[in-house]
Design goal:
mainly alpha, single chain
Length: 98
């Protein structure tokens, strides 16, 4: 039953996709903005997850040994700057490509 449901869903998608190709004289649509949006979303989301993990690890390390605060904070800020730079590099590449 589930396979039949997938088959009918695929047929419905194909039937609705036909009018998209009805315009015969225009040039192909540019997919660069869609790719740029997906790329920036992935970069921002994954860098956000990385920053969250870095901060969580730093707070756990501080909870275990509060005496190492200056060293941990130095490496935490340095690591967060590197993680954020990945998102900024992605944004620059997107602006250059567009």
């Amino acid at each position: 039953m589930r396979k039949l449901q997938f088959v009918f869903m695929a047929l419905a998608v194909l039937c609705f996709a036909v009018p998209v190709f009805a315009d015969g004289g225009s040039a192909a649509a540019s997919l660069i903005p869609i790719g740029a949006g997906i790329g920036m979303g992935l970069a921002a989301g994954l860098c956000g997850m990385g920053q969250g993990r870095a901060v969580a690890s730093a707070t756990e390390a501080l909870a275990r040994n509060p005496g190492t605060r200056p060293g941990i904070m130095l490496f935490l800020v340095l690591g967060l700057a590197f993680i954020e730079s990945l998102t900024l590099f992605t944004m620059v590449i997107i602006f250059v490509k567009m």
